[in-house]
Design goal:
This protein has helices spanning about 10-20, 25-35, 45-55, 60-70, 75-80, 85-90, 95-105, 110-115, 120-125, 135-145, 155-165, 175-180, 190-205. It is an all-alpha fold.
Length: about 210
């Protein structure tokens, strides 16, 4: 079973209500941030290619590269396969990301089948592809597949937000974050949305833009 799927803002409200009722820290965070956005995206090749493009660069830089790829019509598996490695480099991808884009295009993922697989199976299937790490796979499951009980445990912003919200002495690393997030099941993806929003609030209060 794939579990609960988030499709509307009403699902988000149900999740935040559960979190606030069961965890006073989240009640505090939600009072501060308000309801988090839905953030649903389409699934498929384009979503994963976009995630690869966005890795380790600014939002503005990623947007610029993506616009060049769109203009060149290079956002489908067939289009990427038709291009040479240097063509992808010329569109703004680094040498490494051009390799990853090719690996994704040759992987022949059955995206429709992923919709019916458990989140753990989705993550395993995607991380088997060169260039797709656990974070990217979890984000895909969370936002492109709408899984309600997925969490991006290695995300630094989520770790820092959890540290501040729970008054921890140090930021929980990925292993500790996995243990900590279990208490927010079956709404871990909503907890992540709240924590991201909370992170932006606390950083603004610190004067960091």
């Amino acid at each position: 079973m794939v579990g609960r799927i988030i499709t509307t803002t009403d699902d988000i409200k149900e999740g935040t209500a559960w979190l606030a009722a069961n965890h006073p820290q989240f009640a505090e965070a939600i009072d501060l941030t308000g309801q988090p956005p839905l953030r649903r995206r389409a699934d498929g090749f384009e979503a994963l290619l976009s995630a690869i493009v966005s890795q380790q660069i600014s939002v503005a830089a990623a947007r610029g590269i993506w616009q060049r790829l769109e203009t060149a019509g290079a956002i489908s598996a067939d289009a990427v396969l038709a291009l040479e490695h240097e063509d992808l480099r010329g569109l703004g991808l680094s040498n490494q990301k051009a390799t990853y884009a090719k690996a994704l295009a040759t992987a022949e993922i059955d995206f429709a089948a992923l919709r019916g697989q458990r989140s753990e199976e989705v993550v395993l299937a995607l991380t088997a592809i060169k260039g797709i790490g656990t974070w990217t796979a979890e984000i895909y499951a969370m936002f492109s597949l709408g899984r309600a009980d997925v969490f991006a445990h290695g995300d630094l912003a989520l770790q820092e937000a959890a540290r501040v919200l729970y008054g921890l002495n140090e930021r929980p690393k990925e292993k500790a974050m996995r243990v900590m997030a279990q208490q927010w099941s079956p709404w871990r993806a909503v907890a992540a949305r709240v924590l991201w929003a909370y992170y932006h609030v606390i950083k603004e209060h610190e004067g960091i833009t």
